[in-house]
Amino acid sequence: MQGRELTISTFSWYFPYISMKYLDGTENKLIMELSKRLNFTYSFILNKVWGTFEPNGTGEGIHRDLLIGVSDIGLGGIFIVYNYYQYFDFTMPYLLNGITMLVPRPKPLALWLSITAPFNKYIWILVVGSVLIGSLSLYICANLIINQRDKSSENHEYTNFMYCLLTVIGQLTQAPANRWPLETSLRHLLTWQFIFFALVMTGYKSSLIHYLKARRYEKTIDNGEDFTNVPDLYWTAVDESWPKLLSSFTDPSLQKIYSRYKRYSNIEDINKSLHQGNLAIAVENLATGGYSGADYIDKDFIASSMWLMSCDLTNTMVAMELQKGLPYIEHFNAIIRRLIEAGIIRQWEVLSWLYTDLWRKKLDKITMTKFGWNKHIASEPPISMQASHFLGVFSLLCFGLSLSFIVFLIELRFPFRT
Fold this sequence. Notes:
Radius of gyration: 33 Å
Helix content: 40-55%
Membrane topology: Multi-pass membrane protein
Subcellular location: Cell membrane
Keywords: Cell membrane, Glycoprotein, Ion channel, Ion transport, Ligand-gated ion channel, Membrane, Receptor, Transmembrane, Transmembrane helix, Transport
GO molecular function, one term: ligand-gated monoatomic ion channel activity
Largest sheet: 6 strands, mixed
Order of helices and strands: EEEHEHEEEHHHHEHHHEEHEEEHHHHH
InterPro entries: Glu/Gly-bd, Insect_Ionotropic_Sensory_Rcpt, Iontro_rcpt_C
């Protein structure tokens, strides 16, 4: 290239790609290698954002500089977006990263819900349905039998539906019937119901002690589907290029996530929404295991109140963005290909993290929101039972006693039998 000078639009700091202060970063090293091999010099134009642009040249950031011809190359972890090919050229990708999110950490569930935890809602529906069907079956069978006999038969209690219902509920709680009927058919019905409820309650009681002692949390948000299932949860990003990338996909789930994007004018508004628990932050999942893109958020708050998705929303390819028609793209690709095959670019990214202690500490705080919190919960030592563990049990007792008292008052006011 005979010493030609190229102008590069980039950031002053977007680690691990660019660091002007230390002249470090994966793409800093890449451009130095290209300059040495192809014999060109370069100068930088510093930007704060990747930016947005219009075909007429209006906009801001790195993309605009390339579009209007102010710069020749754009660097800074730029994603290859299909829609951009009509305006820019891209080198071959040299890094494959993912996009994930820091989402609000799951909140603890109310302690009184612990007594319902051993069964999910579908099993509870089956249990309640079994009680009602069992009570109705007992009531119908008893009436069919008793109506053929003397009304003064000793089995007359079972012709009352409330008595049948209380009997079946007693069987559910492993309490035997007060009076067993003489008829064989009714005894068979009660016996098989008792066996069924005994097996159900054995499974319930074996799991109950765990849920009484363990702290339970809401369902974690680990993928895009979980994110869209949470109402009033929005997300934001460091730059408008992130939502533009998602908008370029036709996947319906990514389109739903894109519709939840919320733009903020300043960091203070972002932090306010984060503290309210209705905002997620898009971050970049790097191939070397690090995360980047949320350095403008207080890391102490992230470590204490946010959770990292276990699944990426999508994968992205990082490349150099070039002014349309720049004649050196094939020369760039030839060198980049050799660097990739030798594993040098991947090693640059690893070394960039290792030699930057400040960012390594920030990285630790982010990654610990996923791994450290789970480890902390799993490693809690056994604890003795406390009164708070029985909050659900006492709540159920209070509900039962209150319901019984209300029935007692109703019977005093409206006696049903003399």
